[in-house]
RNA sequence: CGGGACAUAGCGCAGUUUGGUAGCGCACCUGCCUUGGGAGCAGGGGGUCGCAGGUUCGAAUCCUGCUGUCCCGACCA
């Protein structure tokens, strides 16, 4: 491709709307343009990157006998009503009506429609397992689209659905996808980590892993262990209880603590360390109130609590409810003598006390006394309070022991680019996707679903590979491998040499761009760095006299001199070697 | 959905306080010149100042309403 004809409108300045680096660079380097909030046009360079990523995904899906299909984006409301998600999915579902007033949705995900196809066409155990996938646009009307391609309302996703006879079959399919995903992100040249994750609203019976591209700009917090393989999203990460020394229980006493509300204030006021305190957080759920207890120096993990209580709604109770429950101002709640129920606006609401495992092992703890400006000292589990449930409900933090091997946990930020789910029979049951087994007995198919954010992976690759001059594409997903730059477009000798090398590269199967624009060299170099071509070949007067050209490798920032006649061959070898290295 | 900010040429911005009919840099077009890290000179094209009302002789500027965009939070297969 000739740069003079390539639609890659680079910008000298960063558009004000772009905050994260991938958004800034993809706009500046002329890869994308915004059409509406969270909706982007992919220009030629982006299209090529997306195709490279998609091709890698396709190869690895096909390798595991995944079969590619295309499912409709416009989906009838009836299917969504059948699964129950028409009402549950909420405002995030893009809805539309046709001219007859019939309801449709733009697919945010495709469990319904794939299950519909399979229930109609697959009836025998002989046809299973079945792995079907597509690479397509997905639509989610995000409350707040942001970070450019990272969280859009229209985005490209690969989704594969597995259908198996039983849980054992599902485990096999799951493993296949897990391994395929690891190969895919490796081949894309990304530093990533599969982590244990929370299943969220999608539910399901088995485990789920998220594939995280490690980057500081990531939205997800993960903890991992270098000594063993343990890695998890903090939403899910197990926290190992640290048990303090047992002391002789002293007599319960209340102590005046005027206007001392926070753990820190209390620690300095009483001279007691936070790990000897019990923090009490009151939550309101559709199943009543929950008083959650964690050690003073710990943080509650709301997702663990929500899963434990099995609620849809979980929000911190408002001040008024806390006052009614404890009979005290906010900041003085505690488990001792906490009422079993409370009357809020004429409604009787039950209260459940749930304690983190560590809490019941604190001897002579300090807690709120449910009396304004008072706390209790010497609170002991069993004698002074008895939780309804004891479980791991706190947030795991870096530095604490790994739940598997006790080495110190580390933390990192990650961008979720893929997730694998064991769905079980949730959708096959709702939509009636059954098959007959060897005994002629009808059974529900056991499903899994596996997503990769293709457009997000492109953005994640930029987040992980850039410098102050621009993008540094991994060779395997770079839009082009090489840019050939004659320093002067008016120097016939340089132009001729450049054209020759460009042609040779193309003949060798190397994807090359010839920067034939009548620009000063600085402009061409800046654009090359910004766009992120892995290799730049520069033909200039200094070296041409010796029949040599410069080869600049973007990743290493190093320049070497090569003979004109062999440079194409050499660069082709380098490119092939790089790609092979990744797969 | 709560809080905050912004909206003037493709991009970055000034002009708004104090109303007088729109400007700068980059980009774009023509010519000259130049060619090793976003050159220089000369000429040129491009904007119903987000939209709709209102005040006024006159509105980018003041008032009202709306829309869009971004950030923080809540939310999120």
Provide the low-confidence segments as ranges: none
Tally of structural domains: 3
CATH homologous superfamily (4th level) name of the largest domain = Bira Bifunctional Protein, Domain 2
Number of helices: 15
Biggest sheet, in brief? 9 strands, mixed
- Gyration radius, to the nearest Å? 30 Å
Q: What do we call the CATH topology of the largest domain? A: BirA Bifunctional Protein, domain 2
Query: What's the CATH first level of the largest domain?
Result: Alpha Beta
Provide the CATH architecture of the largest domain: 2-Layer Sandwich
Share of helical residues: 25-40%
Oligomeric state of this protein: single chain
Q: Mean of the pLDDT scores?
A: 93
Number of β-strand runs: 32
Q: What would you call the structural class?
A: alpha+beta
Question: How large is the share of residues in beta strands?
Answer: 25-35%
Intertermini distance: 27 Å
- Overall 3D form: globular
